[in-house]
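In response to the reviewer comment on reproducibility (Comment 2.3), we provide here a single inverse folding case reported in full, input and output, so that an independent group could reproduce the run without further information from us. The structure tokens appear first.
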């Protein structure tokens, strides 16, 4: 795992790369696609953060296991962790993973050090990939929402869109196809043009709130810095909604009744959720779904959390 090593990016007679391309990056890690497969690999920028990405791998596994089954937002599976410096390799593979039906008795081990050979030699984990947006949705976003100069420069269509339903996105000369923002107005414009492809915004916000409540009260995590995105399905050109990015998620004490960590995480996140203003229709959808999705034994704490974010939002507005 010392790559990308091989300058040969495609086989003779083919333009398909055999080297994992980088498809996204943040301050903590970069994400690479595994060529020809519906998986991605998240690699830390600094080996000093190996323990942190190992923890993220386990958090993602826990959240997927407890929250994904009936979620509106798909949650990637955490499949394998590998640290080339310590040679630690750990997997969370479902039974029969990667095997044809008639061969599932085989004890195959699909992830081994060779699989990671053309990636940077730092700690990483493998997960399900968020597929790119369907081309017709991406092209509509490019032609109607990119600035004119970006369209004229043939800037690529977006791969993933962040769902910023808590603020108005102002026009910008800068476009990042890997993370294009959709606010309420932009999303509603897409729904108007692609009603058969996209659900109403109220359904999306209902799904956001349901999943956040489950993360809080089913798993005991604060949801800090998680991202709600619109992308594509892995095996068909249709949209799919995903929850991604778990490296800042932390445990909190569900039994204490103290919701301070949850309030802090809510406002520290990018503005995915509607702002907590009682009487605002989209926030009311969020509030009702959050309470409906909370386990009964934590209902009082969930109500305390909602009151706290409403009070914090009112305090912010009053100080402006």
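Designed residues, in position order:
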């Amino acid at each position: 795992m010392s790559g990308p090593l091989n300058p040969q990016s495609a086989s003779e007679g083919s333009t398909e790369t055999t080297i994992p391309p980088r498809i996204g990056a943040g301050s903590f890690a970069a994400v690479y696609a595994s060529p020809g497969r519906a998986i991605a690999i998240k690699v830390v920028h600094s080996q000093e953060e190996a323990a942190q990405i190992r923890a993220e791998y386990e958090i993602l596994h826990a959240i997927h296991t407890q929250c994904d089954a009936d979620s509106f937002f798909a949650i990637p599976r955490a499949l394998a962790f590998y640290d080339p410096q310590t040679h630690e390799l750990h997997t969370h593979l479902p039974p029969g993973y990667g095997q044809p039906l008639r061969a599932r008795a085989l004890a195959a081990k699909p992830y081994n050090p060779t699989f990671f050979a053309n990636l940077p030699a730092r700690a990483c984990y493998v997960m399900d990939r968020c597929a790119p947006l369907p081309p017709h949705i991406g092209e509509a976003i490019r032609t109607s929402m990119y600035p004119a100069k970006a369209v004229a420069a043939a800037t690529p269509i977006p791969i993933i869109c962040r769902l910023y339903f808590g603020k108005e996105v102002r026009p910008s000369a800068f476009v990042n196809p890997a993370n294009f923002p959709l606010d309420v107005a932009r999303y509603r414009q897409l729904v108007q043009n692609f009603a058969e492809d996209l659900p109403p915004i109220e359904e999306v916000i209902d799904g956001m709130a349901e999943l956040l409540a489950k993360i809080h009260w089913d798993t005991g995590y604060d949801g800090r810095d998680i991202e709600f995105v619109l992308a594509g399905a892995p095996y068909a050109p249709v949209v799919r909604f995903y929850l991604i990015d778990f490296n800042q998620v932390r445990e909190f004490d569900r039994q204490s009744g103290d919701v301070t960590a949850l309030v802090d995480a809510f406002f520290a996140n990018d503005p995915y959720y509607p702002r907590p203003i009682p009487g605002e229709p989209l926030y009311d959808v969020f509030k009702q779904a959050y309470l409906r999705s909370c386990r009964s034994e934590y209902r009082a704490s969930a109500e305390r959390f909602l009151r706290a974010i409403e009070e914090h939002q009112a305090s912010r507005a009053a100080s402006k």
